[in-house]
Fold this sequence. Notes:
The complex is a heterodimer of chains A (338) and B (279).
Chain A: H1 18-52, H2 54-60, H3 63-66, E1 70-71, E2 76-77, H4 80-111, H5 114-128, H6 132-159, H7 174-199, H8 202-210, H9 215-244, H10 247-252, H11 270-277, H12 284-312, H13 317-332
Antiparallel strand pairs in A: 1-2
Chain B: E1 24-35, E2 38-49, E3 53-57, H1 64-70, E4 81-89, E5 92-93, H2 101-107, E6 108-111, H3 122-132, H4 139-149, H5 153-156, H6 169-182, E7 187-191, H7 199-212, E8 217-221, H8 225-231, E9 234-242, E10 248-257, H9 258-263, H10 268-274
Parallel strand pairs in B: 3-8, 3-9, 6-7, 7-8
Antiparallel strand pairs in B: 1-2, 1-4, 4-5, 9-10
Amino acid sequence: MKISHAHEDAALERTRGWLDRIGDPVLRAITFSAAALAVTILGLIAYELVSGSRLAFRSFGLGFITSQTWDTIHNQFGALSLIFGTAVTAVLATLIATPLAIAIALFLTELAPKHVRSLLGALVEMLAAIPSVILGLWGILILGPFVQNQLEPFLGSTLGFLPFFRGQHSPTGILTAVLILTIMIVPIVASVTRELLTTVPSELREGALALGATRWEMVRGVLLPAARPGILAAVALGFGRAVGEAMAVLMTIGGTIGIHLSLFGHSDTLAARIAGQYNGASTNLQTSSLVYLATILLVISLAVNIGAQFLIKPIDRRPRRQRIALDRAFEAQGLSAD
Amino acid sequence: MEAIRTKIEVAGAGLRPVVGERQAVFEARDVSVFYGDQLAIDNVNIDIYQHLITAIIGPSGCGKSTFIRTLNRMTDLVPGARLSGQVRYRGIDLYGPGVDAVEVRRRIGMVFQKPNPFPKSIYDNVAYGLRILGMRNGLDERVERALRSAALWDEVKDRLGDTALGLSGGQQQRLCIARAIAVEPEVILFDEPASALDPISTSAIEDLMHELKRDYTLVIVTHNMQQAARVADMTAFFGLEVAPDESRRGVLVEYDETEKIFTNPSDKRTEDYITGRFG
Lengths: 338, 279
């Protein structure tokens, strides 16, 4: 029998159409420029901020960061009080939101009946879709009066021996802003955590339960540790959101300068101050000082982001991979890796 | 099944003499499992004996895994799963009122098809069960003993703090066995423990099972008939039965001493499966 080769005379040259041939280079060009665009925009923003804050930098130098003053009449500006306000509100909101969000995620993935899961999950995510100005409005109309008339008197009478819960009751202030921020970041952290928990293999859950673990012991000892790096990243994401939020904070925090321990008192954050004063700035120095604030905010946000990435990255990734590879190589030869 | 009395020699019998007739650890009576409306296994009756290795073999989808999971109430974890009949463990109905599934699983350990070490250190994998069960005194010794029993100690003793995920598949499975042994169960269930492993690791697991049967009662689900023939004292053959409405369910076809099942089965269906004429 004669074996006939198909296409015996056809050389291996390209026969694809014109459109087919340029597909790969075009794809590469489009994706590369998209990636380049993102980097360029970040660079441009950083450049604009630095150049915009030059005037303020020349006047106040790095002392801007350590000065509490924000005096529009005498044209004296400093960021410390705003950095303080930003840190306090963001940290407290994250501290309150994290356990809540993890609890929601655990309920949705481990405990809730199947048909409740998707409905409730969608509702939680919808909470994240509420525009921050609406949350701010709600903060003024509903939450503020509640904080003033119920929450602050209660905290004052039970925990008033602590300096954090003293002072005049007010519908606006750090406490109200913290609660609004908490409401904003809970759905973010919860939905990311929920995604993470669903990726933990069910074999791990079964492994723990088969050892006689209760559901809680399984969650605490196996599930949460397995998802820990991702949960930390989700928390960092929420923290970043809280640091950068302007509108809802502007509407609820009271907008005053000064550093104090009382959570009932007014304060202000970097983002809220920029949003609140930029349009009404009366001098070039004030405008430039606001841009200086923006530069500080950007640095903080980027630092949080980079910090989060370090948290996620398992420190021993490379050596471990190498170890696995080594083990396999040895085992293939019937040897032990030790 | 009652007719079966101790005839074959039980390995390790010198350590724990088996007197008179075998002692049944599990007695399954008319056990049926439903997933929703679907009948998965139908009316299984079987006694599983102490200090023997009992293998459950059969084609895919015949309910082997479903059955073994009824023995430590892992069935509970499947939403919509329902069991009728009785599974008695040392005379106690496992599904009776007042029986705590967590306590059941503590006494009846399980090793799964896919090695599932926790993303923790080798040491903490073994210590996890001990810690949650409050067996904290002499933790180091207990961990070492479990790892030795699982024939893993020599390979890992110098890197107990390393992550268990860095172990090979065979080592991971032996770690899972060590983890199960550490909490001192009475029975260990193996759900296709070697199906994801290479032949060398498989044979290590099989040797280990022979060792373990001195102290434990072992039940193994396997799709590998040679494996059943190598390790098991008793073998149960599960088959698929097609109902008039074309729905399929698993039934226990034949249960006997392994040698009898593989050399002289009583049921035509077992013979067909054993000789490869299944289907």
